[in-house]
Specification:
elongated, 5 strands, Double Stranded RNA Binding Domain, about 160 residues, alpha+beta
Length: about 160
């Protein structure tokens, strides 16, 4: 099994493959996001980017998080809801030196069981919100890392062309 990993590694190295994000911290400042869910999303993004950065970081990420939307997914014959879905949407702008280099929006959703007992219903809802925030963080974080990598590669190429002239 180990031999297969080495062969795969050799083949990837031979084709010029280079991972865009390998154990390096990104210099991204995540601006504060309003609301309790915004605080959790910001903390999750900072963890993905390697820790909290100051406002003078190379990149600045501004995220606007919308309020959660809850939809009923299943009803009993009595009309009581038994299954619900929570969805969160966010828009973001990634900039460097005050100039936007990427923008987008992401949505994440999770279904959860809705029970009659208040404590259990709140726990189920809160777990669904936290899971949705984690998925949203992964989606935004992955796109932002890809955009910073693309931007840096584009600048390396243009710097090389300037040197060649």
């Amino acid at each position: 099994m180990k031999m297969r990993k080495y062969i795969l590694l050799v083949l990837l190295a031979a084709c010029g493959f280079q991972p865009m994000y390998t154990e390096k911290d990104t210099d991204i400042y995540v601006a504060p996001i309003s609301g309790i869910n915004g605080i959790d999303l910001r903390n999750s993004l900072n963890a993905k980017f390697g820790g909290v950065r100051d406002a003078d970081a190379t990149y600045t990420l501004v995220v606007t998080l919308k309020e959660p939307i809850t939809k009923y997914k299943a009803l009993e014959t009595t009309g009581d809801a038994t299954w619900q879905e929570i969805s969160l949407s966010a828009t973001y702008v990634l900039s460097t030196n005050g100039k936007p280099i990427a923008r987008g929006s992401e949505t994440a959703a999770e279904s959860y069981t809705f029970v009659r007992y208040l404590v259990a219903a709140n726990a189920s809802y809160n777990n669904a919100v936290q899971n949705t925030i984690q998925v949203l963080s992964e989606k935004i974080g992955t796109r932002v890392i890809a955009e910073t990598y693309r931007y840096e590669q584009k600048n390396k190429t243009s710097d090389t062309k300037k040197i060649d002239k």
